[in-house]
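Open question from group meeting: does this chain pack into something compact, or does most of it stay loose? Before anyone orders reagents, we agreed to write out a predicted structure and look at it together. Recording both the input and the output here so the notebook holds the full record.
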Amino acid sequence: MPSSNSWIRLQPLSEASDNAAGTALTMSLDNRGLAYGDGFFTTMGVIDGLILWSEYHQQRLDSHADALQLDIDSQALLATLQTQAKQLQQGMLKLIVTRAAQDVRGYGYAPSTSGSACEIWLKSSAMPIATAEQMPLPNGCLVPLQPVASATCLSSQLACLPPPLAGLKSLNRLDNVLASAELQRVKAQTLKSNPFLLANHLSTNHLSANAEPNIGEGLLRDMSGHWVEGTMSNVFYQLSESPFAKSSNPPHPKNNNYLSTGQWYTPSMAQSGVAGVMRQVLIDGLSSTEQPVIIRSLQDADLPKVKQLFFCNALRGIMPMSSLTLLSGDVVAF
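Structure tokens returned:
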């Protein structure tokens, strides 16, 4: 088992003496993931030696390998990852898959077996995975539930991509990098403009949990103007009929009926964004209810009508929001 936070390159599984074989190597500067973003990644939570949502991660391996024309035996790879997870016990596995070096000069790759060959890199990180609150889905699955926070609309935009690239967790993430940096600036400005938070920060060099700027995530548009996802998460929402109208009996995030009360929507990933593992878990979990999730675009005119909103990802589960600050400065409270 490699030391925590170290990268290893997994050997071709057919050559490995056991399913957990891996070699610590230095990545070449000619690696196509570094040079062209030619590959994808996925992050997996591990609790009690088991990969959370492993079937969904295997679906991602298969769908991304198909989209990028990479040769991956997802079943054998998942067995390797599960062995690593058993040794890790609790934490995160991050997998990066890149196309192998090509004889073809430039961007292209050979239309052959060598063109579909790939390098697989893995990092194991020991870390706590929050499970203090669990929310049951109608199908019996338990999803981690984070404390309530607030959200803000960001001016950064996501690229619109052609199929089959839209929805992939590819290595081309510069739009998310810039958006995440904008969110950090917003948090810093919130801290600077609040004397209590700033004094607390300067006196202790850190913020207590109840004094931190309570901005949990930023909402992003794509280049077509549709609001699509968060900086590191997918988004689900409910709508009221009137702008800024509050639900007379809004469901509480700790209520077991939170997800099964009202109609939930989530934006399409057909032209931008990442089709996340937790997004699909929730879509499937609500598929048998009277109100399954509806794939629907979220536009400017909808934002004042949002009455419930949460973000989600495979590591943090559900991140419920209490309000959304619009680009105009207006705040929609939930």
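Observations to bring back to the group:
The longest strand covers residues 149-158.
DSSP finds seven helices and 17 strands in the chain.
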